[in-house]
Amino acid sequence: MLTYWITDEPCMLPGTATHQIGVGGFVINNNKEHYLHKLILQYAGALFLSIQVLVVKEKKCPSKSHGIWKLPTGFINKVF
């Protein structure tokens, strides 16, 4: 882990990484249209919500998670 402590005080960062930072996203365009998967939620014959959601399948994942659709996620390798 490469760091640069700016202040004159002692560096309070641990010597090794203790956490991973992850990200996730939910994508909707201006027309509230989504791109890959359409969800229709119905209750007692009434239509409450009809949307499409961007979902992905991981190329490399544990066998128990193989083939599962999920929201796009990932790890941050550069923080601005």
Question: Briefly, what is this?
Answer:
With 80 residues, this protein is mainly β.
Largest sheet: 2 strands, antiparallel
H/E element sequence: EEEE
* Unreliable residue stretches: 34-49
State the oligomer. Answer: single chain
Number of strands: 4
Distance between the termini: 16 Å
Q: Helical residue percent?
A: under 10%
Mean pLDDT equals 65
Q: Given the helix and strand composition, which structural class is it?
A: mainly beta
| Radius of gyration over all CA atoms, rounded | 20 Å
Overall outline = elongated
Separate helix tally: 0
Task: Report the sheet-strand fraction.
Answer: 25-35%
Largest sheet, spatial ordering of strands: 1-4
Would you kindly provide a written description of the structure presented here, covering whatever features stand out?
0% of the residues lie in helices and 26% in strands. It is mainly beta and 80 residues long. It has a domain at 22-75. The strands form two sheets. Strands 1-4 form a two-stranded antiparallel ribbon. It has a two-stranded antiparallel ribbon with strand order 2-3. A hairpin with a 2-residue loop joins strand 2 and strand 3 (46-53). The protein starts with 21 loop residues before the first strand and ends in a 5-residue tail after the last strand. Mean pLDDT is 65; it is low at 34-49. The chain crosses the membrane at residues 39-56.
